[in-house]
Amino acid sequence: MYVSATRWPRLASVPANVLALGAVSMVTDVSSEMVTAVLPMYLVLSLGLSPLAFGVIDGLYFGVTALVRLAGAHAADRWQRRKLVAVLGYALSAVCRVGLLAAGGSVAALGAVVAADRAGKGLRTGPRDALISLSASPGALGQAFGVHRAMDTAGAFLGPLVAFGLLAATGGAYDAVFVTSFCVAVAGVLLMVLYVRDRREPLLADDRVSVRRVPRDTPLLQLCAVAAALGLVTVSDAFVYLLLQKRLALSPELFPLLPLGTAAAYLLLAVPFGRLADRAGRFAVFLGGHAVLVVLYGLLALPSAGGWLLAVALVALGVFYAATDGVLMAAAGPLVPAHLRTSGLAMVQTGQAVGRLLSSVLFGALWTAAGAEPGLAVMGGGVAVCAVASWFVLRRVEPGAEPRVVPRVVPEGERGAR
Amino acid sequence: MRGRGRALVLLAAVVALAGIAVAYAAAATRRDAGPGRAVDLAASGRVLFVRNGRVASAPLGDPAAPVTVSGLTCQRFYAAAGTGVCVVVRPGPVPSTYAVVVDRTMKEVTRVQSAGIPNRARVSASGRMVSWTVFVTGDSYNRGGFSTWTGILDTRTGYAVPNMENIQLYIDGKRYRSADVNYWGVTFAADDNRFYATVSTRGRTYLVEGDYGRWEARTLRENAECPSLSPDGTRLVFKKRVAPEASARPWRLYALDLATMRETPLAERESVDDQAAWLDERTVMYGRQGDVWSVPADGGGAPRLLLRDAASPALGGPGHTGAAASMSAR
After folding, report:
1. Are both B181 and B268 inside the same structural domain?
2. For B245, which residue in chain A has the nearest alpha carbon?
């Protein structure tokens, strides 16, 4: 079925299931980014909520998302129903679009809808990435994740444009944005149900599937720690944009375009960097992406800057995501036995998410207490130290083109039950 | 299901979903309130406010009287002496935010581009100085920094500052420099030069007194946000942080006597996140949970519902300058 894994796999070898998952993510991201783009304005302008109150609500539900992600991944592995769990996650988020309308101005109800939406996202990412990693040949995982992330980011790029276009056309009808977003999300769920094939591993009698079993016998725990540590010293995009704005005194109308610039760079570079990771080593590319970040922090802290910094910064962020986001999943996949793949990937994602959440608190505190430049120095130094340390940890577990962990022999005909 | 069957199911569903979305959007567009009626910002005895995104006007003291809704769309509005400022997000593939200055007939005079979510708006009592505040990263407090931009426009000279954060700041008398300063909630004094505002840096918020001509600001005290200067210039009403943001009542309105710097809690016990506006020399009005309320500015009395479904209150009228303001208000 697959073209054998040569050193440079041809693009045509991207499995249909990965393309289907990419299409689902693209459509779903159009839907979710539509809402993300207009939600702050809706809450503050239409409902009169304080922006600070929303930020607090948002942060509080983080723990719920992490738990749901791990529990959903466990269920997906326990019953080998990855597609079902992912579909439930996509469907839950779709329902939340109309839930926003039903919630009206009640802060508690809005908080619950936002939490449910996050839970849906947490539920689906683990099984989705597991399906991608089980659908592609081990030597072309970087490319498969690159293709998926490029499609996903294309959706994220389009979503805000669709939402604001709709607001302009309807004279500011937020409910029309939510209803359209719901319709788009339903189309995504349908695409998933119709075109994505489940990958189900036959469980042997002694396979006790449990999240607790994942880390002990695999190098995954090390990768999880690396992802969390690097996440902790990564400055969030919002801070980078804010720093750019302050350094360059950017004119106001450019500010909303900055995330679009990053998304454009990311979606163009995701496939090339995924392919590079398959050839040059996934950990090397993953850590190389963090080296770019160190350079970026250095540039942001320079005493003088010009317009070039803006272009360099957006491309650097795009390179960083292209070299780290899908590549991390491609690197993690072969470290986990197929029947535990969802739980393993979900653990790495959760580790990274916890790191990034704490990083915002950390950098916010550094900025507040010492200023932006010392904060950047600490974070950049942290990334450098963590990346070098990670290299010594990870080069011993680099699986190369062949999966290192193949503990069980399952007849080929029984794999991937559909 | 075979390939063709699946494709047909998908196609049919996409057509149906697109139909629903288009029909709903079309219905939502027709719901738009239409052209609107004339509102005179300089008419006395009326309160100006924003209802359903439009600037409207209603007579004072008669809750049952009919409301005049104008065609001007604003997220935040204020007016004084026949000059209005409308802070509005103009939709488009990438939305842009403007502070639009209008004359007494609500015709646009000039506009200044900004970005983000409109938050505060103010015009000095003479109608000359205009100021506004937007939240630039209002969506991501847990992920990113807290950032506001406050602009000031001198309508006489046409000189506009889109973001006042480069003003020379003195904290407790010492010159202070930091990249993380944010200003919001400006209120001008009768000389159209002195002003009060909030500044935040390193996690603290201060009340500042500013001098527009010398372009400097000095802190007066901590924890006093969104000041609103009384018509006679002797008192500020401000919102004070009394509990953490996540609690039920994070803010409370206080009055500050500028001569003694003594503060007095107002009788409104509910949390108010707004820059109050003076209704007369003894009373302020403010938005609270979608309605506009008023309360005496001396700590006595009780809050009174002024307008349902309203925000951004401002007192209409021809305006007055300096001492005449306090005379006529009494």
Report:
1. yes
2. A53
- End-to-end CA gap in chain A: 15
List the 138-157 stretch of A: residues with Cβ below 8 A of B: none
State which residue of chain A sits closest to B164, comparing Cα positions.
Answer: A249
3-state helix, strand, coil in chain B (%, to 5): 10, 45, 40
- The domain total for chain B is 2
Contact A164 B95 (CB under 8 A): yes
Residue A205: the pLDDT is 54
Q: Are residues B131 and B178 in the same domain?
A: yes
Range of the domain at B14: 1-31
- Maximal CA-CA distance, chain A: 65
Contact partners, residue A193, CB within 8 Å, separation at least 6: A87
The DSSP bridge partners found for residue B163 are none
Give pTM, 2 decimals.
Answer: 0.84
CA distance A47 to A319: 38
- What is the reported pLDDT for A212? 59
Measured CA to CA, the distance from residue A329 to residue B4 in angstroms comes to 33
Sequence-ordered list of residues with C-beta below 8 angstroms from that of B99, at least 6 positions apart, any chain: B85, B86, B87, B111, B112, B114, B121, B130, B132, B151, B153
Residue B138, domain CATH: 2.120.10.30
Please answer whether residues A5 and A138 qualify as being in contact, where contact means their C-beta atoms are separated by less than 8 angstroms: yes
Taking only residues 82 to 121 of chain B, the set having a beta carbon closer than 8 angstroms to any beta carbon of chain A reads: 89, 91-97, 113-119
Q: What is the pLDDT of residue B180?
A: 76
Domain A214-401, CATH homologous superfamily name and number: MFS general substrate transporter like domains (1.20.1250.20)
CA dihedral B229, B231, B232, B237 (to 10 degrees): -30
Within an 8 Å CB–CB cutoff, is residue A369 touching chain B?
A: yes
Q: Which of B1, B138, B180 has its CB closest to that of A367?
A: B180
Which of B239, B235, B269, B268 is CA-nearest to residue B254? B239
Q: In angstroms, what CA-CA distances link A60 with A33, A107, A368? A: 21, 13, 21
What single-letter amino acid sits at A228?
A
Q: What is the pLDDT of residues B222-234, one digit of tens each?
A: 999 999 999 999 9
Instruction: Say if A408 is an interface residue toward chain B (CB within 8 Å).
Output: no
Query: Using the 8-state DSSP alphabet, how is residue A238 labeled?
Result: H
**Cβ–Cβ of A187/B31 closer than 8 Å?**
no
CA atoms within 13 A on the CB side of B188: 26
Closest among A274, A222, A223, A281 to A399, alpha carbons compared: A281
Contact B191, B178 (CB under 8 A): no
**Domain definitions of chain A by residue range:** 14-198, 214-401
Residue A107 near chain B (CB below 8 Å)? no
Regarding beta strands B182-188 and B174-176, do their DSSP bridges make them parallel or antiparallel, or are they unpaired?
Answer: unpaired
- Signed CA dihedral, B224, B226, B230, B233: sign only: positive
CA-based nearest residue to B138, from B161, B114, B118: B118
CA distance A200 to A412: 13
Q: How many CB atoms lie within 10 A of CB A6?
A: 13
Instruction: Share the mean pLDDT of chain A.
Output: 85
Name the residue among A169, A190, A236 with its Cβ closest to that of B143. A236
As a residue count, chain B comes to: 330
H or E element at residue B232: none
CA angle A4, A6, A10 (to 5 degrees): 85
d(CA A222, CA B143): 26
Q: What is the interface pTM, i.e. ipTM, of the complex?
A: 0.82
Give how far Cα B166 sits from Cα of A56, A161, A246, B87, Å. 29, 33, 11, 22
pLDDT in tens, A57-108: 555 567 778 889 999 999 999 889 999 999 999 999 999 999 999 988 777 7
The class level of CATH for A14-198 reads: mainly alpha
Interface residue A301 vs chain B (CB under 8 A): no
- Residues of A within 8 A of B8 (CB-CB) are none
